[in-house]
Design a protein that fits this description.
single chain, mainly alpha
Length: about 90
């Protein structure tokens, strides 16, 4: 069986598809991680808020930390999604 001639365009297309799949996988993992961390930090924030309502001033730190973690994880997932969107538009243009 003779070898097919090397087609650089086909090779490039396959590489772009592989990159797109990997970025899509990473975006999905980022979203799931952000969802889990947001749920956990929401729980910590609620516990901290309950502590504050009970008159314990040490509850302020967990409440603010939980909110900060949620914001960072959501930003991380958004960045992964933006990279995926950019790659998808590049693939459409080609």
């Amino acid at each position: 069986m003779p070898l097919a001639p090397f087609d650089p365009k086909h090779s490039l297309d396959q590489e772009l598809i592989q990159i797109y799949r990997e970025r899509r996988r990473q975006a999905g993992v980022s979203f799931n991680l952000a969802l889990c961390i947001t749920a956990a930090s929401t729980f910590v924030s609620v516990v901290g808020a309950i502590q504050l309502l009970k008159g314990h001033p040490e509850g302020g730190f967990p409440a603010s930390t939980g909110l900060g973690a949620s914001i960072l994880c959501i930003r991380f997932a958004k960045d992964a999604n933006d990279r995926l969107d950019k790659l998808a538009t590049e693939l459409k243009d080609e």
